[in-house]
Amino acid sequence: MYSRTTRRRAGVAAIITMAVAVLGTLPCVARDVSATHQQLIRSEAKTVGGALDTTDWVVSVRTVLTNAEPQGVSVTSKVSAALWINAQLRDKVVDWVEHSGEAPPEISDGWRDMLTAMSSQLARDTLAVRAGVSSATNIVEPWKRDGHTYLYGGVDYGDLIAGTADSSPAAFAWATDASADVMRLALLESKAMNLVARRDLIALSEALLGLDSRWDDYYKAMRQETPLDTVVNNWRFGGGEGLVFREPPVSQMVLLHPTPGVEIGKLKLDEVRPTVLVEVIGWYWPSVPVINTGLGASLTASYTMGDIDGARWGGGALLHISKHFTVGVTIRDTGDSTDVIPILALDAWNTAEDAIKKVRQPF
Q1: Taking the chain (363 residues) in consecutive chunks of 10 residues, what is each chunk's mean pLDDT?
Q2: How far is CA 282 from CA 65, 169, 261, 296, in A?
C-alpha cells in the first residue's frame, strides 16, 4: 500500500504532466524568435548552405562552385559556372512558387513576396553576368546579409519566423525551415556572383595598373607647376563628383609662371645678362608622339638685370623643348633701338625637383 504522502506526490505529478500536454497544444506565445535567428546565423557556415549541408540541391550547386573557385580556373569557366548555378537557383525558386500554397495561411503572403523579390534579383544577376558588369558590387551587394536581411527591399527571413511566433508549432517549424532555405539560396548565389565579381575586379585592377603607369609617365614628362598653374589645370581637367579615375591630362597650361633665364645680347657671351622671365600664358604638351618628347610655347614678359642701356622690361615668346630646355626671344628698348634679343631659360622648378629625387634615391 502506498502512503498518503506518496499518493499526494503521484497526484501532483499527474496534474503537471496533464498541464504540460495541454499547453503543448496551445499557440506558442513565448518563443524566443531572436534565439532562432541567431541559431540560423551560427549554423550558416556549417549546415545551412555551408560545407556540411547535405541538402541535395545544395550539394550539387556547391560541387560546381567548388570546382570553379580556384584561381587557376579560366574566366570563361567561372562565368559559365555562375550562370549554371544561377539557373539552378532560379529553378528552385520556381519550384517554391509552385508549392507556395503549402505555406501556412498566416504567412503565405509574406512568403510569396519574398519569392517574387528573389526571382527578380536572380533574373537581374543573369542579365548582369551575360552583359559583363562593370561594377562587382552591383551583383554581390544585394545578397549580403545585413542583420537578418539578405535582399534589399524588405526581404527578411526573420519576418517569416517572427510572423509565426504566436502561431502553431507546425507553422513555426515550417517558417524556420523556409528561412533556412532562403539563407541557403542567398549564400550560394552570393558565392556564384563572386566568381564573376572576381573577374571584374581583376579587369579593374589591370586597368588601374595601366592608368597608374600612364600617370607616372605624365609626372616624369610634365613641367613642374606653380600653385597657380595647379589651380588652373585642375579647373581645366577637373569636374565631376565622387571618385573618378581620370586619365592624365594631354596638356598643361601655365599662367604667370616665373622662370629664371639669361639674355644674350648680340649673341655675344660677354653680353650675357641674368633675366627674370614671367610666362604670362602658355601651353605645354608633355608627350608629343612624333618627336617623342615634350613641346610647348608661351608668351613672356622679361625683366633684365645688370648694367644695361635702355629699358629693363621687354616682351617676347618662349619655345619649350622637353621640360628642361627653353629658348626664345625678347623685344626691348636697348637705348639706341628696339632689338630682338635671344633668351635661354632653365626651368628652376624642374631642376630642383630632379635634384631632390637624386638625393632621395639612395634611401
Answers
A1: 46 42 40 64 66 87 90 84 92 89 77 83 85 62 63 61 74 82 85 77 75 87 89 81 74 92 75 90 90 91 85 92 88 85 76 54 49
A2: 59, 82, 17, 7
